[in-house]
Design goal:
The protein is 70% helix and 1% strand. The protein is mainly alpha-helical.
Length: 428
């Protein structure tokens, strides 16, 4: 990927510089608002899906352990299906792959809902959940569209990545609240049905925006010589990012399930979505600020700082003794999430060639979802045996693990981004 760069002078301190009107120009491009609005629906469905499954299964079958296991089975399957779908998108185009994948996913999600309502055995829930894991990664496809629109303009790409992360966090503010609200006020399965409808409608509308769909690209001539034509997962830098995002996902998965269990244990189960939304709200606020500030210093350094901040800010949750203490701590816990994800996305865009961009971004998203599955399953087991009171130790441990992986692999990340840089001149 050919981009502009400007190395930082030796000895220059890291300091922020405000950028005026950072987001307004993003939507001057024709079609940008249309694909963003359409993609929001599908991404909202993803934000609803996990907690909707937990609430539905725990309500119909009376077991958090089973709810965690069903979520784990669904998300762990994405370790195979999502990179495969990303590779197909790079090869055949977004619309040709996303539409049939969304239809298949929605059909099996409907089967999962029926199984839950009929109180089918655990194997039926798990089978339906596994078969429903073909929902396309609309977030990665949207970022690929921004990369096409702003090809070579790294300042605009920093803002686009920041905006995309904030949009993700908005989804994770609204999604859990909507899912839990529907499940508690309408029926246990209502949140999952809403997620199904949004997945199908959002993906179809997104795919219909053909003007901004990136063209299918062949491998760049000569790329084999520098090793950039290899599969993204074979690149050491992507391996580090994948493992780091796996641990980060475990933070989110354990946090989600423990919060649902904790709020129920203190008699406020209907507020689980609101409490989870506070963590996403904190992340959204920090993401907006991060996007309008141009930070001096390299992307690897900023990524490490974000992961370290996430580890530090998760620790206070272990001292939450009630809902009153939990509310502000959840907002604070989200403050480092967006900066970590924004810089992580930028690193991935540097580490993979453009013709493998969907696959590369989907790998880290898959790792994130796989980590959510792992965190959810472990948290379900922990809560069943030890209660939710000490459950917030789990996301704290996972955040420390993410920091350890990122720090250990920092040299590989720097080696991967040495040479062509995606950093804008204003950010270095």
């Amino acid at each position: 990927m050919i981009t502009r760069s400007c190395p930082a002078p030796t000895g220059v301190a890291v300091r922020p510089r405000l950028v005026p009107a950072p987001y307004r120009r993003l939507f001057a491009a024709e079609g940008a608002a249309a694909f963003t609005g359409a993609g929001f629906l599908a991404r909202l469905a993803l934000a609803m899906s996990g907690v909707a499954t937990v609430v539905m299964v725990s309500s119909t079958h009376g077991s958090y352990a089973l709810a965690g296991l069903v979520t784990f089975a669904s998300l762990i399957t994405t370790l195979v299906t999502m990179p495969w779908l990303g590779r197909l998108v790079d090869r055949f185009g977004q619309a040709r792959v996303a539409v049939p994948a969304a239809v298949w996913s929605s059909a099996w999600t409907a089967v999962l809902v029926v199984c839950a309502v009929l109180r089918a055995p655990a194997w039926a829930l798990i089978a339906a959940s596994v078969l429903s894991t073909t929902a396309p990664n609309v977030g990665a496809m949207a970022r690929a569209r921004w990369a096409e629109i702003h090809d070579g303009d790294a300042v605009a790409m920093h803002r686009a990545n920041s905006f995309e992360q904030v949009l993700d966090e908005v989804c994770f503010v609204v999604g859990p609240v909507l899912a839990v609200g529907l499940a508690t006020s309408v029926a246990p399965w209502a949140g999952k049905v809403c997620s199904l409808v949004l997945t199908l409608a959002g993906t179809l509308l997104f795919a219909a925006q053909r003007r901004t769909e990136p063209p299918v690209r062949a491998a760049a001539p000569g790329s084999a010589a520098d090793g950039r034509s290899t599969a993204p997962l074979r690149q050491p830098g992507i391996q580090v990012m994948t493992l780091t995002f796996l641990c980060t996902g475990a933070v989110f998965g354990s946090l989600e399930l423990v919060t649902v269990a904790f709020t129920e244990s203190v008699g406020h189960g209907s507020l689980a979505g609101v409490v989870l939304g506070l963590q996403a709200a904190g992340s959204a606020v920090s993401g907006l600020l991060f996007g309008v500030v141009a930070w001096r210093g390299g992307p690897v350094r900023r990524f490490l700082a974000g992961v370290a901040g996430m580890a530090v800010l998760m620790l206070p949750l272990t001292f939450a003794g009630g809902l009153g203490a939990l509310v502000p701590l959840m907002f604070l816990a989200g403050a480092a999430t967006s900066p970590t994800m924004i810089t992580g996305t930028g690193l991935v865009q540097e580490l993979v060639p453009r013709e493998r961009l969907n696959e590369g971004m989907t790998l880290t998203t898959t790792a994130l979802l796989g980590g959510i599955a792992l965190g959810s399953a472990v948290a379900g087991w922990f809560v069943e045996r030890h209660g939710p009171g000490h459950g917030y130790a789990l996301p704290a441990v996972a955040a420390v693990a993410a920091l350890a992986v990122a720090a250990a692999g920092a040299a590989l990340l720097r080696r991967g981004v040495r040479g062509v840089r995606v950093e804008p001149a204003a950010l270095v």
